[in-house]
Amino acid sequence: MSTRTILVLVERTKGQLEDSALELASEARRLSGGGPVHAAVTGNGLGDLPGRLTEWFDQVHVFDDLQLNEPDGEATAELLFALIDRERPWATLIPHTNNGMDLAPVLAVKADCPLIADCLSLAATEEGLSAVRTVYGGKVHARVTARATDKGFIATVRPGSCAADPTAPGAGGTVVPETVSELLVPHRRFVETLIPEAGAVDITQAEVLVAVGRGIEEEENLEIIKSLAEALGAEVACSRPVVDKNWLPKNHQVGTSGLTVKPRIYIAAGISGSFQHMGGLKGGPFIAAINKDPAAPIFGVADVGIVGDLFDIIPLLEEKIRELKG
Amino acid sequence: MEIIVCIKRVPDVSEVEVEIDRTGQGIEETDLVYGINEWDNFAIEAAVQLKETHGGRVTAITVGGEDDEEVLRRAMAMGADEALHLKDPAFENSDGYGIATILHKAITARPHDLVLTGAISGDVGSGHVGGMLAAKLGIRQVALATDLTVERSRATVRHEVEGGLERVVELDLPALVTVQTGINEPRYVSIRGIRKVSGMEIPVASASDLGLDPATVGREGARVITEELFLPPRGEGAEMLEGDDEEMVDTLIERLREHGGL
Ligand SMILES: Cc1cc2nc3c(=O)[nH]c(=O)nc-3n(C[C@H](O)[C@H](O)[C@H](O)COP(=O)(O)OP(=O)(O)OC[C@H]3O[C@@H](n4cnc5c(N)ncnc54)[C@H](O)[C@@H]3O)c2cc1C
Ligand SMILES: Nc1ncnc2c1ncn2[C@@H]1O[C@H](COP(=O)(O)O)[C@@H](O)[C@H]1O
Question: What is chain B's Cα-based Rg?
Fold first, then answer.
C-alpha cells in the first residue's frame, strides 16, 4: 500500500486552537496510509502551540511573524503555496471556515491543484481524491472525485464532520520554523477588527431558545414566536435571513457567522438546518424542529420533529403551554 | 468605474421533494422554480449602488444555457447597464474551476475595476468561483463582504472572519469581492421593470468567441467530477411525531417536559 504526505492548515480563533485542527490531524492520518502528516500554523507569537502540535503531527511548519498578527487569506495562500511547492503533499486539508473560504480558491489556482470544497468525508481512491459533500442546501449529498494530478489536491473540510481521535497519536514530530519576510507581499491593509456589540438580550446564556427562520415569511409574524418564547420563559433566536432582513438584530443570530449558543432546549421553526446555522448550536441541546418540508435537513439533526405549518403549530403550542402553566 | 458582477440562476429547493434523476448525477428538474442565486442578488444591488454613487458601468455576466438569460434581464431591471451571456454546449457540466476559467477569459478582455461575485451558490455551494477568478485575473480579493465602499482607486471592505467577528480591510483596485447576504437591501424587481428590459439585445459569447479551448472546460475539462448524487437518510435520529396537530403538539410538550423545558 502506498503512503501519502498530507498537509493540514491549523486554524486558531482569538488565539485558541480550533477543534478542526485535531479533526483534520486525525483525518489526515487516516488518508496518509502511514505517510507523514504535516501541519502549517501561522500567527504572531505562537508560544508553545507548535510544540503541542508535535503530539499530533510529524512536522509542524511555523510561520510566526509580526506581519501575520491579523489573518489575511491572501497572505496565508501565499505562504501555503510556497510550502506545497517545496513539500509536495498528496493533499492539503484546510478547515471550511470563513478563513478557509477566503484562501483555498486562491491557493488552488496558485498551486494549480484541484480543489474540493466543504467536504464531509475524504477517501483516497485509484482515480484521486474522493469526497462526500452536500449540495442544494444540504438536501442532497454528492460523491465527487478530484482527478489525480502531479500537483496534489486541496480539500476544505467542514468543521465537526470528521471525528478527532480521542488521544494524540504521540507523533513525536518536529517543529520547522519557516521564514516569512521573503514570502509575504501585503495584499490587504488591515484597518480594524469589529467586536459585535452586546445587546439587551444575551441568547448565549439562555436555557431555552425558540428559534425562527425564513419560514416566518413576514416581520409581523414574529409576534407568534415572541409570544411562544414568553409563554416558555425562553429567548428568541433566529437564522441569518431574519437578520439580513433586519427583522431581528444580529445578536439574535445563531451560527458560524453569528453567536454560539448552548441552551438545554432549542425549538427551531421554519429553519432548514444549514450547517452554518447548526454550527452555532453547541453542548448537545434537545432540538425540536417544526418544518413543513419532511425532507428538511434539520430533521437529520433534531431529536424530535413535527412536519407541519408553523403558523398552525406555534400558536397551538403556546396555547397549550399557557393552559398548563395556568 | 467599471463593475462586473457574476451571477447564476439556481433552483429553489427549500420546500420541494428533490429527486435524483436517472443519470444519478443530477436532480429531476421538472417542477423546480428557478431564480437568481440569493448571494448574487445582493452582489447586483451592491454593484448598482456603487455605480449610482460614483458613476460608471455595471455589466452582469452569467455562464449558462438558454433559460439562464432571465437572471441577466433581472440584473438589468435592477440597474445593470449591460449583460453578457457566456453560452456554449462546451460549457455544460463545468466545475467551479471551469466556470472561473470561462469568466476569466471574458473579463480579462474588458475593463474591470471591481469584480463582484456571490460568496457561494445555493446549489453547488462551493464558494469557489470568486477566489479562483481573482487568482486567474491576478487581482486582489476578499471573501464574505458585509460592507463595501470605494474611494478613488481603493475599496474598503468589511468581511466576515473567524469566530463571528468582522474585519475591515482596504484593497487597491482592481479587486474582486465576494458578497455575503445582508450587505444591503436588494431592490424589488417588478414585472414592469422586467418588461422594460425585455427588448434589449443581450450579447452572447461562445468558447470560440472567447478564444477558449473547449477541452479545458465543461465535463471534459473538469478537475472535480460528480460521481453520484444521493439523498441523505431522512429524519435520522429524530423522533418524527405523528397524528393531527393537536396530538403532535401534545407529544411535543411531553418531550419538552421530559427534557426540563417547562
Ligand atoms: C459563510 C456563511 C456563513 C453563514 N452563517 C450563517 C449563520 O451564522 N447562521 C445562519 O442561520 N445561517 C448562516 N448562513 C446562511 C445559511 O447557509 C442558510 O442560508 C441559512 O441558515 C438559511 O436560513 P433558514 O433555514 O431560515 O432559511 P431556508 O434555508 O430558506 O429554510 C426555510 C425553511 O422554512 C420552512 N418553512 C417555510 N414555510 C414554513 C411554514 N409555514 N411552516 C414551517 N416551515 C416552513 C421551509 O421548508 C424551509 O426548510 C451562512 C452562509 C454562509 C455562506
Ligand atoms: N455559472 C456561473 N456564471 C456566473 N457566475 C457564477 C456561475 N457559477 C458561480 N458563479 C459565481 O460564483 C459565486 C460562487 O459560486 P460557487 O463557487 O458555485 O459557490 C456565485 O455566487 C456567482 O457569483
Answer: 21
Return the C-alpha cell found at B219.
465535463
Ligand nearest to the CA of residue B127, numbered in listed order: 2
Whether omega before A89 lies within 30 degrees of 0, making that bond cis, reads no
pLDDT tens digits for range B64-112: 999 999 999 999 999 999 999 999 999 999 999 999 999 999 999 999 9
The answer to whether A316 contacts B227, with C-beta atoms less than 8 Å apart, is: no
**DSSP type of residue A47:** T
- The SS3 of residue B177 is strand
| Residues composing chain A | 326
Q: Report the C-alpha gap between A255 and A253 in whole angstroms.
A: 6
Q: pLDDT (tens digit, 9 = 90+) per residue, A5-50? A: 999 999 988 778 888 999 999 999 999 999 999 999 999 999 999 9
The pTM for the full model equals: 0.96
* Cα diameter, chain B: 67
Using alpha carbons, list the distances in angstroms from residue B162 to A192, A194, A256: 14, 12, 8
| Ligand of minimum distance to the alpha carbon of B83 | 2
Specify the length of chain B in residues.
262
Mapping DSSP to helix (H, G, I), strand (E, B) and coil, where does residue A141 land?
A: strand
By the 8 A CB rule, do A89 and A12 touch?
no
List chain B residues with CB under 8 Å of A105: 96, 100, 127-132, 134-135
* Whole-number Å distance between alpha carbons of A58 and A143: 30
CA torsion angle A210 A213 A217 A219 (round to 10)? 60
Burial B59-95 (b: 16+ CB within 10 A, else e): bbbbbbeeebbbbbbbbbbbbbebbbbbbbebbebbb
Nearest chain B residue to A259, by CA: B164
- Kindly report the nearest CA distance between residue B205 and chain A, in angstroms: 24
B199 CB within 8 Å of a chain A CB? no
A23 vs A28: CA distance, rounded Å: 8
Rounded CA separation A103/A89 (Å): 18
Q: Which residues on adjacent β-strands are paired with residue A261?
A: A281
Return the number of other C-beta atoms located less than 10 Å from residue A172's C-beta: 10
Place of cell 444519478: B24
Nearest CA to ligand 1 atom 37: A215
Chain A environment of B14 (Cβ under 8 Å): 137, 214, 272, 293
Residue B85 corresponds to which cell in the numbers above? 451571456
